Amino acid sequence: MTNLVLTTLALNPIAFNFGPIQVHWYGIIIATGVVLALILSVREGQRRGINEDYFYDYLLWALPVAIVCARLYYVAFQWSYYSQHPGEIIAIWDGGIAIYGAIIGGVLTLYFFCRARQISMWTMMDVISPTLIMAQGIGRWGNFMNQEAFGAVTTRAALVSQHIPEWIINQMYIGNHYRVPTFLYESLWDLTGFVLLLLLRHHHHLFKRGEVFLTYVMWYSFGRFFIEGMRTDSLMIGSVIRVSQVLSLILFVAALIILIARRQRTNLPWYVNQ
After folding, report:
1. What are the pLDDT digits (tens) for 10-67?
2. What's the predicted TM-score (pTM) here?
3. Binding residues for a 1,2-diacyl-sn-glycero-3-phospho-(1'-sn-glycerol), per the UniProt record (predicted)?
4. Between 20 and 30 A from 24 (CA), which of 94, 144, 228, 268?
């Protein structure tokens, strides 16, 4: 009995205490993804002739806006709960931020930032998007530490059959049941997309300006649509419509249409020649 308890003991979501402040693994993991994305974006931006200060300045504006938008997005679709617990609205350290809200906030910030600095928004998005999906893949491990973003009840044998490491299986023991690790599926999908976008972006004459970003949107939304269907903690409209699935479908179709329309324009530069 003791061994069984030990093998299913959840990991502590608190990394350490700094005086009265509890530092959560969730925040550390998210911050790690952001820092790595910034470093890689700066390096690629330098190859494209973009001043590295633009990335630092943009992050200073985008990060707080993205966090606020991510939380507002989540709270809006869980208003029946938060209207009764308003004191928990700001408790982002316990999880409950929506990546689509963060992306919307980041893109809106980038639009106004690029207009103010008189630089191409499409070029900036092409540079940022591969590292963004990398950060998303890393950030899913914050959900892992918080035991959230999981799927339906499953069995330990089913998880073992997928060759999932023991320490992940143990963390998927939630509410006296093993759960489908949808956080893991999405993380792997995102990181695969990161590698793919890097490989394709540096292939000569493959992408025109803006198409790296549009490919990112299609890749992420395609995977998210199916993975979201496996989750049991989705934000819902009513009782049957999953918000993220609807938005994923809209984004995929919109990005595809825009990509096809822009490809018809012969005056757009190739990414490598920007």
Report:
1. 899 999 998 888 888 988 999 999 999 999 999 999 998 999 999 999 999 999 999 9
2. 0.91
3. 140
4. 228
Q: Which two tokens stand for residue 86?
A: 């308003």
DSSP string of the chain? -HHHHHHTPPPPSEEEEETTEEEEHHHHHHHHHHHHHHHHHHHHHHHTT--HHHHHHHHHHHHHHHHHHHHHHHHHTTHHHHTT-GGGTT-GGGS---HHHHHHHHHHHHHHHHHHHT--HHHHHHHHHHHHHHHHHHHHHHHHHHT-S-BSEE-HHHHHHTT--HHHHHHTEETTEEE--HHHHHHHHHHHHHHHHHHHHTSTTS-BTTHHHHHHHHHHHHHHHHHHTTBSS--EETTTEEHHHHHHHHHHHHHHHHHHHHHT-TTSPBGGG-
- Are the C-beta atoms of residues 200 and 167 closer than 8 Å to each other? no
Is 43 known as a binding-site position? no
Dihedral, CA of residue 271, residue 272, residue 273 and residue 274, to nearest 10: 50
**Residues sharing a CB contact under 8 Å with residue 239, sequence separation 6 or more, in sequence order:** none
